[in-house]
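Human: Here is a favour to ask of a fellow structure person. Comparing notes only helps if you start from a blank page. Give me a protein, with the fold worked out from its sequence. Please set it down just below, with no commentary around it:

Assistant:
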Amino acid sequence: MLNQREETEYRALKVLSVSRDSLGSGTLRDDLVKYGTRISEATAGRLLRELDGRGYTEKVSFRGRRLTERGRARLMELERERERANFGSELLRTLRAKGKSELIEVLVARRAIERETARLAAMNATEREIAEMESIIARHRRATESGGSGSDEDVKFHHLIAAAARNRVLMAASSLVRQDGQLAPILTYIRRQVKSRVVDDHVKIYEAIASRDPAAAEAAMVEHMENLIRDVERYWMEHERSG
């Protein structure tokens, strides 16, 4: 979440990015009002000089400032931070609305379905599908190591296993139980809060499928689902204790 100073910086850069003309302190002050930021012209002038000093803006003779490429990069960075904070707040609202029992019910249903899809995937997956599973895991690991959620890769990994099982009824059941698009981000958020790593579970499942070991694949998937259930219970216990 941006602090007050960063939020003002973001709004100033945003104003500069959409302006067709270079801006002076008076125009910047007036435009910032539209974003809900009220500052004096003197403060706007100091802000512009600070942005100049950091290389985010540059003077255009006597007419004012314009945004530099470095300033556009900084604006994009601040926008990502704001989006991440807003997404986190939305996840928390959804998490409270769903509640612990609903999440666990979904995971219990997934455990019943996906243990079988993993077993069948170990028997029926093509070499191409196995290679794609490995690729998804690599992308998932890179996403989490760079601070991302990796929830998209999580969904793709489980969807690919369901497809590789070659059972249309199980695939439909898997899609049905996973149809809520918020579930993957919520579970990713919970696992990050309790410092659990979903990628490690996926590696075990992948290795069993790649080894063509149905029993090991089933056991790895069951372990993965039980880890998720345990993480949800642990999150709620810690949340209730702190609340």
